[in-house]
């Protein structure tokens, strides 16, 4: 008689290391003028090799009174191609202003804005697979959709329709305030069914004031319309529901009174409720430095880690294998049913489809795989789900791997891996 199979589970120890996973984490801003010739060689030295994404701000203000010319469009394509070739997920913002002077630098007529967007459309479509989020709609100070003549709902709807047509299902859009999202999605407001949307949010004034410098309002939802700003608590409740399906990111702003009165646990709780996936690693430096000098004390595992590192390592998704079991049966042939419990300890979910599989080497030296029946990218922050996989047992180690489906970029787990990107689940023996 054949010996019974025995499974020795690995330790599955959790790691506190930062994980270089795509479409999440800290980012830098790279600002360009569309009329200036682009040279990638001048940019390579300042890229942070640990980042997986970058915010690209392209200023087209020089064309406020005329169409984009061939040179300008070629420069913009050169920029997009550079970041695509460096395999950085792009957070793209094209605007007329990056100094807070939109009313001086935007076109006088709205038709010029739509013409510019129509000219940009083919480039957006061509590079859509590398554009993680397209922020804003060309208008407002710094492209942040405020202090502009073009924020009426009918104008935003026209820009949204154009952008959505060019980017399709490959990229996410993002607007600056939740009230703009609701104004553009009146048909689903109130239903809570946001699963079909491709529009998220960006907030470049997190902690800048009680209302994030006007991102939120002061009156409760019950007293306001769908396209009005709501009080902070109501807006956070809205963001908690919406950002289960679409990403949110931005930057923090230092305000002395706010910074002194908000504790690190309160800071983390706000970012969790907003489900923040990405933050500017430079702005606001004063607040980021403050985080670096506060120690996290709420969780024994993370005890002693400073606030900046704790927040950075929880931006977006962070998957950790919590348990694994192997159950053996013998019908026509040996079979092993694997059950793997994975927790998302990050602030947000992953918004790209992922592939998950177990891998082992059989007695003939062949690498074998078995797909795990779990949609890893659907695990919400704070949630644990169990995936199953049936394989033919083979003596040796068995590992768990994941990758992003669209481009094969590896996904790292928050488990100690001893140099491998896969997680050692354990060993099979007879």
Strand content: 25-35%
Number of domains: 2
What general outline do the C-alpha atoms trace? Answer: globular
Number of helices: 11
Please give the CATH architecture of the largest domain: Alpha-Beta Barrel
Query: Under CATH, the topology of the largest domain is which?
Result: TIM Barrel
- In total, the number of strands is 17
Q: How confident is the prediction overall: mean pLDDT?
A: 95
Order of helices and strands: EEEHEHEHHEHEHEHEHHEHHEEEEEEE
Pick out the low-confidence regions.
none
Biggest sheet features: 9 strands, parallel
Q: Given the helix and strand composition, which structural class is it?
A: alpha/beta
**Rg computed from alpha carbons, rounded to a whole number of angstroms:** 24 Å
Describe what is shown at a glance.
With 430 residues, the protein is of the alpha/beta class.
Itemize the secondary structure elements and their pairings.
Elements (H helix, E strand, L loop, with lengths): L5 E4 L15 E3 L1 E5 L7 H4 L8 E7 L10 H16 L3 E7 L6 H4 L4 H17 L4 E5 L17 H15 L4 E4 L2 H7 L14 E8 L25 H11 L5 E5 L3 H6 L2 H11 L1 E5 L4 H8 L14 H8 L4 E12 L3 E11 L9 E8 L5 E5 L12 E8 L4 E9 L18 E7 L1
Parallel strand pairs: 2-10, 3-4, 4-5, 5-6, 6-7, 7-8, 8-9, 9-10
Antiparallel strand pairs: 1-17, 11-12, 12-15, 13-14, 13-16, 16-17
Main features:
430 residues; alpha/beta; Immunoglobulin-like; TIM Barrel; five-stranded antiparallel β-sheet
